[in-house]
Design goal:
alpha+beta; Toxin - Anthrax Protective Antigen, domain 1; 3 domains; five-stranded mixed sheet; 17 strands
Length: about 325
């Protein structure tokens, strides 16, 4: 049994190592886990001060029972599982991950946030799981591939079904997967967007092609930027006259059309009309390092939807748009 000064010192050390890191620094699961031993020590110290053993046992049962009941009720409540967290984890994501053959025969390209669920398969699937980026968004055809998306990407489920057919797309109540067998898939690049990214610090610029303007952080692999970053998507509109809506989370956006219309604001949304044959250039300027979160939808009476795959064809902008990099 520890003497009272030593017990107080042990409790203080538990606070310093357990609670203080989670309070004084950026919270994380690892730091919060360190709080559990301290909470147990503090509870035991409080019970130890009761003079009789029977009282301590009764108090321990009441304390442990009430804490366990409250914890179980909270774990299964709406407060613990808010709607925004259900798209990251839950039954649908579990089914999505389990639908991928084990071990992998080909490659799995996973949307941001899903790589964590494949960590337990690293020994058997090492090198076969990759995060979604500009280079691997369309299959290379050399291996069969699974593309896995969380519920954040659900607006693209119909987009993929229209291109690849019903049998290659599986839905899991929000999350969905796309299976692509080996073969020649080069024809998929006939439509889509030309995509460019230009960084001010360190200086670099890359270009590629993406099937749809729907970005939740994915860009060119192996690239990082500590300064201003400009993303630009350019394509020729091949569909009928349409009303489009651009949405984004951070930075300033600009929409330039070949007929001379230029729209720019920081309100996180731009609505504009486009005609068949027009060239569209959309730029997003991020003044500080942050992920590009940006979407383009067609506005329909029934709501918003991603434009059809054949609605846009990659195009190179003839003149630089007004939304360009400025010196930091």
């Amino acid at each position: 049994m520890l003497s009272r000064p030593r017990l107080a010192l042990l409790t203080f050390a538990g606070f310093v190592l357990g609670i203080a890191p989670a309070v004084a620094t950026f919270p994380s699961a690892h730091r919060m886990m360190m709080a559990y031993p301290f909470i147990s020590l503090a509870a035991a110290y409080a019970l130890e001060r009761l003079p009789r053993g029977e009282w301590r046992r009764i108090a321990a049962v009441v304390f442990v029972g009430s804490a366990a009941l409250a914890s179980v009720r909270f774990y299964f409540s709406e407060d613990f599982w808010p709607p925004q967290s259900r798209s990251v984890s839950g039954e649908g994501v579990t089914q999505l991950v389990e639908s991928v053959p084990y071990p992998l025969r080909g490659t799995a390209v996973v949307a941001p946030g899903l790589g964590y669920f494949f960590a337990v398969r690293e020994r058997t699937d090492r090198g076969r799981v990759a995060p979604l980026d500009v280079r691997n968004w369309w299959p290379d055809g050399q291996n069969e591939s699974w593309y896995l998306f969380t519920a954040h990407w659900q607006p693209l489920e119909a987009f993929y079904r229209s291109i690849l057919g019903e049998r290659r797309v599986r839905s899991f109540g929000g999350p969905f997967s796309v299976y692509v067998e080996r073969g020649d898939w080069s024809w998929l690049r006939e439509y889509g967007w030309r995509y460019e990214a230009q960084c001010a610090q360190p200086e670099w610029q890359e270009s590629g092609q993406v099937p749809v303007l729907f970005h939740i952080g994915q860009t060119f692999p192996g690239r990082w930027c500590s300064g201003r970053l400009v993303h630009r998507w350019t394509a020729q509109w091949m569909g009928d006259r349409s009303s489009l809506r651009l949405k984004w989370e951070h930075g300033e956006a600009l929409v330039a059309l070949s007929r001379g219309t230029v729209l720019a604001n920081e309100r996180k949304q731009i609505d504009f009309e486009v005609q068949r044959g027009e060239v569209i250039s959309i730029s997003l300027v991020l003044p500080k390092p942050t992920a590009a979160i940006v979407f383009l939808f067609r506005r329909l009476p029934s709501g918003e939807m991603a434009p059809e795959w054949t609605a846009v064809r990659p195009h190179e902008w003839a003149e630089p748009v007004a939304c360009t990099l400025a010196p930091d």
